[in-house]
Design a protein that fits this description.
globular, 6-stranded mixed β-sheet, alpha+beta, 97 residues, 32% strand
Length: 97
Amino acid sequence: MVKNRCRYKRGMIRVRLLGGVKRALGREYVDIYSEQLALRDLLSILASMSMKDTLYNPSDLIIVVNGVDSSLLGGMDTIVRRGDNVTVLTVVHGGDS
């Protein structure tokens, strides 16, 4: 179901990983072979690929589907389909010490 390849194919969901998610999985892209799935299921797949499942808390992530922030599309209920491009990146929190 999941493969890591450099060449993008139209019959899959391409997930680009940035920040802490990229470091946790040790790669920039993950290709998911599925007709469609909800973003919450996509995050479950990514979490299963990493020992650091704490990185996959939706409130700590920005998820972009085909260039649009997923919070504008339905949040974790957003359905992604084969051929879609998804970008997942961690939110960097800061504050006074």
